[in-house]
Amino acid sequence: FIYLFSFSVIFFLYRPQVVDTRNGSTVTEFILVGFEQSSPSTRALLFALFLTLYSLAMAMNGLIIFITWTDPRLNSPMYFFLGHLSFLDVCFITTTIPQMLIHLVIKNHTLTFASCLTQMYLVFGVGVAECILLAFMAYDRYVAICHPLSYAQIMSRQVCVRLVSTAWFFGLINGILLDYMTFRGPFCRDNHIENFFCEAPIVIALSCGDPQFSLRVIFADAIVVLLSPMVLIVISYAHILASILGRNSSSGRGKTFSTCASHLTVVIFFYTSAMFSYMNPRSTHGPDKDKPFSLLYTIITPMCNPVIYSFRNKEMKGAMVRALGRSSLSQAESV
């Protein structure tokens, strides 16, 4: 409902002015350059690679969603958040990668303004929601490690639902602002986007007017959206580290470090790539620099999240074995 309301606000309250001043005609679409300049053999190799990564990411995140929502042994807040993180990753990767795979096969790389606007809104909304959710997951680990006796009371089911709803709400509302700042001006320059999806700083650079105001707003928004959760994460793990070092049991330290290391790895992957894309001056950007970082947070991170969490967590591995065992048993009975 929130998504439909948000998109309606964007689409009906303003319409981007897209005029090509070179010949007076109206610009109705963008062209995603992506990997268009690569050789056919390179595109075929990239298609196979990205299709494999996309399939793995969808399968692994889908499995985590299934087991965290169905296995009664994984009923703690950590796995509740992990299930929603995997759901966000599925949404995030689906907004960009299927389109990129299609463009690697066909020659028509055009994208309508409505499609570009929608894709950018989803990337912003889901990306911001994931930033906030990662901060809430750090807070969850802080409460679990530093206040174990009060953990069940502080991180009740109702609180967890409210935190996840907050992440989604701010993500989708923030997407309205960023979409508006991107498409508020007329477009009359080259409509070629030097990336494989509609990325805001690149699209803003194609507008007729001065793009500096929109870029400053997006930069300021990135500071709030990225650095505020990052501060909460740093504070949470600073308290966790102090609590771990104060313990006498070395085995307890190792288990706690193992649990927190997986979360920190995900945070480093996601925040590093996002900060480069939205907090660096545009003068330092270019197609050769933008694409690797875009790939990092659009496909590599969503694929790595389930791997990092699963293979470093005995409970997750056990739940996966049980889920796969039930699936094999049901198939044998049907035969």
Mean pLDDT: 79
What is the ordering of alpha helices and beta strands? HEHHHEHHHEHHHHH
Poorly predicted ranges: 1-7, 9-14, 20-25
Q: Major sheet: size, sense and barrel closure? A: 3 strands, mixed
Q: Strand-residue fraction?
A: under 5%
How far apart are the termini?
A: 42 Å
**Overall 3D form:** globular
**Approximate helicity band:** over 70%
Major sheet strand order = 2-1-3
| Total beta strand runs | 3
**Structural class assignment:** mainly alpha
Number of helices: 12
Rounded radius of gyration (Å): 22 Å
Can you walk through the features of this model?
It is found in: Cell membrane. GO terms for molecular function: G protein-coupled receptor activity; olfactory receptor activity. Keywords: Cell membrane, G-protein coupled receptor, Membrane, Olfaction, Receptor, Sensory transduction, Transducer, Transmembrane, Transmembrane helix. The protein is an all-alpha fold. Helices cover 75% and strands 3% of the residues. It has helices spanning 2-13, 40-70, 77-94, 97-105, 113-146, 151-154, 157-183, 200-204, 212-245, 250-279, 287-311, 314-334; strands spanning 29-32, 110-112, 192-193. Strands 2-1-3 form a three-stranded mixed beta sheet. Helix 2 (40-70) runs antiparallel to helix 4. The model is unreliable at 1-7, 9-14 and 20-25 (pLDDT under 50).
